[in-house]
Write a structure and sequence with these properties.
Elements: E1 7-11, E2 13-14, E3 17-18, H1 20-36, E4 40-46, H2 53-58, E5 63-68, H3 77-91, E6 95-99, H4 102-114, E7 119-123, E8 125-128, E9 135-141, E10 146-150, E11 157-161, E12 178-181, E13 213-217, H5 224-237, E14 240-243, H6 245-249, E15 270-274, H7 280-286, E16 291-296, H8 303-306, E17 309-312, H9 315-331
Parallel strand pairs: 1-4, 1-6, 4-5, 5-12, 6-11, 7-11, 13-14, 13-15, 15-16, 16-17
Antiparallel strand pairs: 2-3, 8-9, 9-10
Helix pairs in contact: 3-4, 5-9
Bound molecules: flavin-adenine dinucleotide.
Amino acid sequence: MSDYKGVMIYCEVAEGKLVAIATELLGCGRKLADDLGEELCAVLAGSGVSGLAQEAIAFGADKVYVVDDALLKEYETDSYVSVIEKVARQVMPQIILMGQTNTGRDLAPRLAFRLETAVTLDCVELAIDPDSKLLQMTKPVYGGNARAIFASESYPQMATVRVKAMTPLERDDSRKGEVISVEAGLDASAIRTKVLETVVEEVEGIKLEDANIIVTGGRGIGGPEGFEDLAQLAKLLKAAVGASRPPCDNGWVPDTMQVGLTGRIVSPDLYIAVALSGSSQHLAGCSGSKSIVAINRDPEANIFKEASYGVVGDWKKIIPAFTEKVKELLAG
Ligand SMILES: Cc1cc2nc3c(=O)[nH]c(=O)nc-3n(C[C@H](O)[C@H](O)[C@H](O)COP(=O)(O)OP(=O)(O)OC[C@H]3O[C@@H](n4cnc5c(N)ncnc54)[C@H](O)[C@@H]3O)c2cc1C
């Protein structure tokens, strides 16, 4: 254990920018590193990413390891696992964190295997145990019905963290840090997959994962027309529209709108749940919301147990009245 020191964050980059989860992880990693009295380092891997090192420092890193190589232009499992492993062996951190994203989900278990350690996926809270100094990793279990706290007996202790579960630090461009360049040392022939094409998902309006407000409809919406009413309200609130599984299964809305265990996991500031019962599988995708407002005609609906505010009634009366009120407030 004494060989392992500090906290290491893998910072994802997309379209030449740090993705939001990277700054969230840096904020959380800073706190963990301070609690341990150790350093926080960030890893940037990609092609043309060197310019982002100062940004990682501004968001909390003491050191940034940069692996800048043309072979890292696109995320590829073989190349990225290989370079992150290389940096991890050089740094020997006691904690490694990455986002619970498509990349993090792919990278973390493979990296853990190579480093002969374990990884806890999809954490929503991380803390240092004051006695053991071990990382306590909290994650939802049983479809979001309970939370379990894990600790690892092997090093480095690894976790992936749910998007929006942590808060970034205020950006401070006056922060100073060290930037260390690492050779990728990649052999192109060892990269067994190749990205042939990237298809950008067409989303009208705001993406679910990026939205601060989400208006979600359930089976009780009754059909695709009802979702147009929700879209009207969403537009006024600058919100995204989501759905429980039945509207997607029924073809009323695209599958990409599904929130839940087998859909998107979201954690907006405000989640307006309309005519959905609040099944455990649905709540697994939205229980991280800061505030849930439920609209349901059944006062016994499970969603009211999770909601901060509830309206019992027919959405067909409530949503138009609510939309009018929002219009009035925005105008005035
Ligand atoms: C392995 C597995 C994975 C799953 N993954 C997901 C997932 O990712 N996401 C997901 O959502 N589900 C998922 N499900 C399905 C889940 O179990 C529920 O069946 C589903 O969430 C129910 O959707 P709902 O709440 O919209 O429908 P219902 O449970 O039928 O609820 C409809 C609600 O609408 C209310 N209502 C009806 N009419 C009105 C009205 N006019 N005004 C106001 N309220 C009204 C009713 O009172 C009721 O509470 C999964 C299931 C399994 C087994």
